[in-house]
Specification:
This protein is α+β, with helices and mostly antiparallel strands. Helices cover about 45% and strands about 15% of the residues. The chain folds into 3 domains: about 120 residues, Acyl-CoA dehydrogenase/oxidase, N-terminal domain (Butyryl-Coa Dehydrogenase, subunit A, domain 1, Orthogonal Bundle); about 110 residues, Butyryl-CoA Dehydrogenase, subunit A, domain 2, CATH 2.40.110.10; about 130 residues, Butyryl-CoA Dehydrogenase, subunit A, domain 3 (Up-down Bundle), CATH 1.20.140. It has 11 helices and 8 strands. The strands form 2 sheets. Strands 1-4-5-8 form a 4-stranded mixed β-sheet, with helices on one face. It is globular, with a radius of gyration of 21 Å. It starts with 13 loop residues before the first helix and ends with a helix. Bound molecules: flavin-adenine dinucleotide. Flavin-adenine dinucleotide (FAD) binds next to strand 1 and helix 11.
């Protein structure tokens, strides 16, 4: 089906501006107290349980969710502001972020009342970490080729197979994972996968760390051997997970975290250029700021559309494609812009080089996680009726 791209021209309302001030004041207070270093290159404790609990106490986790599950019934635009400030400040939000962004909304839609009443309030209090078990050694982009098998047994399923690149698994309390409950059919190759809620302490579940280029431990291999999951932990329709995955991806792909992961480089670039950059540097920096501003407007627009109950799947894919390619190129652009700047302030230069080195090493992953550039462009092309 062909649709035109639609980015509603939404601006953040005044109460979001007030909320931004509140969030900034909180983050500055935490930085001053030594809770985290905004220039810390993720070397500190990014899964900071005490910090997540403070964020939960502020009411900033699951802010859009129903009050009866611990949420605030506030808007996606308010959530946008919180995510943007946390990302730009490099705040250690990994413990609650995945649950806040996508696992909680999946539970709200598909989990039993008992699971919702138990887990959602714990997420909003900052006490619960989630992972996403989609990718496997032989199925990444092609999610629906997943082969980890769920075999029916008394009261539930026995799971056998391997998930890979599972971010947070070593910290997570739960993971939402796709398992094969039936073979695909001739008519529908996406048929046969079911979404499950998995307790990470389950017998038969082994987590093997995978270290990334920077030496940090973010993702893992998760091996499942005769792991039991009860019937009550099935999320949604058996064999029909393909109908559920797309709304989750709109949440995953549209946020400001999709263009702010190397943002610290830009801050340090501004410091290195100083308050009187030459014409060439000023123009190059201005171009970067204009591009960033445009992406912010697009991301705000998608969040406004989510708030309005629309389905901006294609627009979210556009935000992620433009955003991740931009943040991936940022370190190279910043290096070029700063190359000929004479700067006596060695401290500024050292901080810039440090951010540059870190951002250069994480850059390759930015266009892979959450769906590769090629896959996103396929989705956009389909949305535009081009394939
Ligand atoms: C930092 C990081 C964190 C991650 N965290 C998680 C996580 O928490 N949970 C999880 O489940 N997964 C996670 N992933 C996995 C991620 O979703 C996959 O890496 C991604 O979907 C690509 O899959 P793949 O690595 O198997 O590559 P492949 O799917 O094998 O792709 C290889 C290449 O082929 C291209 N390609 C594939 N299919 C097509 C197509 N149809 N059209 C055009 N080109 C195509 C791709 O663009 C890519 O360049 C993470 C990945 C990274 C890098």
């Amino acid at each position: 089906m062909s649709t035109a791209l639609q980015f509603d021209p939404i601006r953040l309302p005044p109460h979001c501006v007030e909320l931004r001030k509140e969030v900034r004041a909180f983050l500055r207070q935490e930085i001053a107290a030594g809770t985290f270093d905004p220039h810390g290159n993720e070397s500190g404790d990014m899964f900071n349980r005490a910090f997540s609990k403070k964020v939960g106490a502020k009411g900033w986790i699951g802010i859009t969710w129903p009050k009866k599950y611990g949420g605030q019934e506030r808007s996606f635009l308010e959530r946008y502001v919180i995510t943007e400030e946390f990302s730009a400040h490099n705040a250690p939000a990994k413990l609650h972020f995945t649950a806040d962004r996508q696992s909680g909304p999946v539970l709200i839609k598909y989990a039993s009342e008992a699971i919702k009443a138990d887990i959602l309030p714990r997420i909003t209090r900052g006490e619960c970490c989630f992972g996403i078990g989609m990718s496997e050694p032989n199925s990444g982009s092609d999610l629906f080729a997943a082969s980890t098998k769920a075999t029916k047994t008394d009261g539930g399923y026995l799971i056998n197979g391997t998930k890979v690149w599972t971010s947070n698994a070593h910290q997570a309390d739960y993971m939402i994972a796709l398992f094969r409950t039936s073979p695909a059919t001739k008519e529908n190759r996406r048929h046969g996968l079911t979404s499950f809620l998995v307790d990470m302490k389950s017998k038969g579940l082994t987590i093997n760390p995978i270290y990334n280029l920077t030496g940090l431990h973010d993702f893992n291999e998760v091996v499942l051997e005769n792991m039991f999951v009860s019937d009550g932990n099935v999320l949604g329709e058996i064999d029909g997970a393909w109908k559920q995955a797309t709304s989750e991806l709109a949440y995953e792909r549209s946020g400001p975290e999709r263009f702010l992961e190397t943002f610290a480089v830009m801050i340090e670039l501004v410091r290195v250029l100083g308050d009187k950059p030459d014409m060439r540097a000023a123009e190059a920096l201005g171009r970067l700021v204009a591009q960033l501003h445009t992406m912010r407007r697009m991301s705000v627009s998608v969040n406004g559309m989510l708030q309005a109950g629309k389905d901006p799947t294609v627009e979210a894919a556009v935000v992620k494609d433009l955003g991740t390619v931009w943040e991936q190129k940022l370190p190279h652009r910043a290096r070029d812009i700063a190359a000929f700047v004479e700067n006596d302030d060695l401290r500024n230069r050292a901080a810039f080089e440090e951010q540059l080195a870190f951002a250069t090493m994480i850059a390759p992953k930015l266009t892979l996680q959450g769906g590769t550039t090629e896959v996103l462009r396929g989705i956009i092309a389909r949305g535009l009726g081009l394939r």
